[in-house]
Amino acid sequence: MQKPNIILVGLMAVGKSTVGRLLAQSLSLVFYDSDHVIEERAGAPISWIFDVEGEVGFRDREEHVLDDLTQQQGIVLATGGGAVLRPSNRRVLANRGIVIHLDSPLERLVQRTRRDRKRPLLQQGNPRETLARLQREREPLYREIADYRFVTDRQGPKALARQIEEKLKEDGLL
What we know:
By secondary structure, this protein is of the alpha/beta class.
């Protein structure tokens, strides 16, 4: 049986990369973080891409990377928080893998990002208000394509990765 792709979506700081890395390790799958792949291919950090090319330029790069990575089989992919903004990305993610929405309460996200200087969308204005707005705007898009939803603040990343793996095995997907 061919192993499916497992795709993690959700807002920044919900733990997609950490949980994804643990899940890939446990399942002996290759792990990708789409933001890291974008940086590697651009030869520059995301903050620079945002500064020079704007959000549209970044989203164009993201769309190509998501399309490219999801053509593989048996990967775990942690996407950027805004990957679901484009309908084409939502189609690709929904059609090429099991989509898992990692969610977290707003207060937890504020706490996790309060010292973060690498996230371009949090560098202007009030980070709490920005996170609340992003949550309102993106939540319906995550729900639209998610096969599963897990809340990330109830247990640590290892326990959450184990819970996801158990659920996928229980449902006959692994």
